[in-house]
Design brief:
CATH class of the domain at 332-484: Alpha Beta
Shape: globular
Strand content: 5-15%
CATH architecture of the domain at 332-484: 3-Layer(aba) Sandwich
Helix content: 55-70%
Number of helices: 23
CATH superfamily of the domain at 332-484: Glutaredoxin
GO molecular function: antioxidant activity; oxidoreductase activity
Pfam family, one: AhpC-TSA
Radius of gyration: 25 Å
InterPro entries: AhpC/TSA, Thioredoxin-like_sf, Thioredoxin_domain, Thioredoxin_ResA/DsbE_sf, TPR-like_helical_dom_sf, TPR_rpt
Protein name: Peroxiredoxin
Largest sheet: 8 strands, mixed
Keywords: TPR repeat
Length: 489
C-alpha cells in the first residue's frame, strides 16, 4: 500500500478532529518506532493489534497500519488491512489499495483509462473532501500515458481536470517533456508556460503566505523556465528569452545555476558576449566541461585570438579542484562503518567484512528517487575511472522501495539502463535492533553516499545529487583518493 496518510497530511491545511488524534498517536510512539529495541517494537505491535478489535473508524486502522510499517511489522499488516477494507469498502484504504495495485500497475493506456473510470465511479472525489491531490496523482498518471501514445489532445484535457494548483506542475511538466521529445513543441509550450506561471505565482507570494505548498510549487520554476526558454532560443526569440530569465533571476536568484545554460546562450545571441563569457567561465569552473566549445568561441572573440587559452583553462580546472577539496572537508567524518551482509541481484552475499582492505563507495538509492537516478550517469563515469583499481569497490544500496515487487523493478531498471552496478538489496533486518542498513547508517534522505576506508571507517558522508557527470567524476576521485590515505585526524 502507498504511504499516503502522512504524505497527505503534510499538505493539508486543516485536519479533522479524528485525523488529528490519529496523527498525535503516531507521534506519541515515535521514540519506539524510531529508536526502540526489537522487544519494544514487538510489544507495541501486539498492543496495536489487540486494540484494533475495538476500532470504529477508518482513521484508526490507517494509523495502526502506518505504525506497523514504521515498526517493521509489514507481515502483520495484511490481516488488519483486509478487515478494514471489508468494514469500509468505499473508504480511503480500499481506494488507495485499488490505485496502487490496479491503476498504477495497469499496462497500456486503455487499461489505465478503464481503471480511472472505476476509481471515480466507486470512490468519487466528492466523498473525500481534501483529497484532491490523490486524484491529481491519478490524472497525472493517465495524462502521461496519453502523451506516451502521442495523443496530445487527451493528455491536455486530462491535465486540465487537476485541481491542486501547487502540485499540477508535477503532471504538466513530464507530459510537456514527453511531447517535446516527440517534436511536438506546439502542444508542449503552453503546458510549460502554465508550470512556469504557477511557480512564479507562489514564489512572489508575500513571505507570510508561503506555506509548504508554495515552497513545493516554486521548485518547478527553473526546470519549466529552462525548457520554455530553450524553445524560445531555438526559435531565435532571444530578446523574449532574456526578459523572462532576467525577471526570474530577480524574483528567484537561487535559480541562477539552473538557468545558466539558457542564459548564456541568450546573451551570446544578443551580442552581450562579456556577460555570456563570465557565466560560461563559472559553468566550466564548476565542472560543466561540455560548454567548452562556446567558451573557446567567446574567448577568441573577446581576446582577438586563442593565445593564453590553455593557461586560462588550466586555471579554471585548478580552481575547481580547490573548490571540491574545500567542499569535501565539510563532509569529513571518522567513525566505524556499521557491519552489513546483504544480497546482490544474483542472490550472492556481500558483506562489509569481505571487503576489508578496499575503499568502498556506498550509494543509497531507490527506483522512485529522481535525484538518485539523475546522479547515476556521473556515478557510472566515476566507477569506470576505477574499473582497473582492485582497491576500490562501488556498492549501490537499494533501499526504501515502496512496491512489493521491488526486486523485479530493480532488476528491470538496471538492465534497461545498462548500468554495470553492484546492487545490494537493503531488506535484511538486524537481529538485535530490527533496523535495515539505511537506518543503521542513519540515512535521513536519499541519495546518500558514504566513503569507507580500507580499515572499515566512514571517512565521508554526502547527500544530494547533480546531473553534472564531470563534476561527479572529479568529486568522487578526490573523496576516494583521500580515503586511501591514512587518517590524520
Amino acid at each position: 500500500m502507498k504511504k499516503t496518510l502522512l504524505i497527505a497530511l503534510t499538505f493539508t491545511a486543516g485536519l479533522a478532529y479524528g485525523q488529528q488524534q490519529e496523527l498525535d498517536k503516531f507521534q506519541q510512539y515515535r521514540p519506539i518506532w524510531e529508536e526502540g529495541t526489537i522487544a519494544q517494537k514487538d510489544s507495541l505491535a501486539a498492543v496495536l493489534i489487540a486494540e484494533s478489535k475495538n476500532y470504529k473508524t477508518e482513521d484508526e486502522y490507517s494509523t495502526t497500519l502506518n505504525l506497523l510499517r514504521a515498526l517493521g511489522h509489514e507481515d502483520k499488516m495484511a490481516p488488519l488491512e483486509t478487515i478494514a477494507m471489508k468494514k469500509f469498502p468505499k473508504g480511503r484504504l480500499t481506494r488507495d489499495v485499488f490505485m496502487q495495485e490496479v491503476m498504477y500497475k495497469a499496462e497500456g493506456t486503455t487499461e489505465k483509462e478503464k481503471a480511472y473510470q472505476q476509481l471515480i465511479k466507486k470512490w468519487p472525489l466528492k466523498n473525500f473532501p481534501g483529497d484532491e491531490l490523490t486524484y491529481d496523482y491519478a490524472l497525472s498518471s493517465l495524462a502521461g500515458s496519453y502523451a506516451t501514445d502521442g495523443n496530445a489532445p487527451k493528455a491536455i484535457a486530462t491535465l486540465e481536470q487537476m485541481q491542486e494548483r501547487f502540485w499540477r506542475g508535477n503532471g504538466y511538466l513530464p507530459v510537456a517533456n514527453r511531447l517535446l521529445s516527440a517534436g511536438d513543441t506546439t502542444n508542449a509550450t503552453p503546458l510549460l508556460k502554465t508550470v512556469m506561471d504557477d511557480a512564479y505565482y507562489y514564489i512572489t507570494l508575500p513571505e507570510e503566505q508561503k506555506d509548504n505548498k508554495a515552497r513545493f510549487a516554486s521548485m518547478g520554476y527553473a526546470s519549466s523556465m529552462s525548457a520554455y526558454v530553450n524553445i524560445l532560443v531555438n526559435q531565435g526569440k532571444y530578446t523574449e528569452a532574456l526578459e523572462l530569465i532576467e525577471n526570474a533571476l530577480q524574483v528567484a536568484p537561487e535559480q541562477a545555476d539552473a538557468l545558466s545554460n539558457v542564459y548564456y546562450k541568450s546573451l551570446m545571441a544578443t551580442g552581450r558576449k562579456l556577460e555570456a563569457y563570465n557565466i560560461l567561465a563559472k559553468l566550466y569552473a564548476k565542472g560543466q566541461f561540455n560548454v567548452e566549445p562556446d567558451l573557446k568561441t567567446l574567448y577568441a572573440d573577446l581576446n582577438g585570438s586563442m593565445q593564453g587559452y590553455q593557461g586560462f583553462n588550466a586555471g579554471l580546472k585548478e580552481d575547481l579542484v580547490k573548490s571540491i577539496r574545500d567542499h569535501i572537508k565539510e563532509m569529513a567524518t571518522f567513525k566505524p562503518a556499521p557491519a552489513f551482509e546483504l544480497l546482490n541481484l544474483k542472490g550472492e552475499k556481500v558483506s562489509l567484512a569481505s571487503l576489508k582492505g578496499k575503499v568502498i563507495v556506498l550509494d543509497f538509492w531507490a527506483t522512485w528517487c529522481q535525484p538518485c537516478i539523475r546522479s547515476f550517469p556521473g556515478m557510472q563515469a566515476a566507477q569506470a575511472q576505477y574499473a582497473d583499481d582492485k582497491e576500490v569497490q562501488f556498492l549501490f544500496i537499494n533501499t526504501w522501495e515502496r512496491d512489493k515487487d521491488y526486486k523485479k523493478n530493480v532488476v528491470s531498471f538496471i538492465e534497461k539502463n545498462n548500468y554495470p552496478f553492484e546492487v545490494l538489496y537493503d531488506d535484511q533486518k538486524d537481529a538485535v535492533t530490527g533496523q535495515v542498513m539505511a537506518a543503521k547508517y542513519d540515512v535521513q534522505g536519499i541519495p546518500a553516499k558514504f566513503i569507507i576506508d580500507k580499515e572499515g571507517n566512514i571517512r565521508y558522508f554526502l547527500t544530494g545529487s547533480s546531473p553534472n557527470v564531470d563534476y561527479i567524476k572529479m568529486e568522487m576521485k578526490e573523496l576516494i583518493e583521500s580515503a586511501k590515505k591514512p587518517y590524520k585526524g
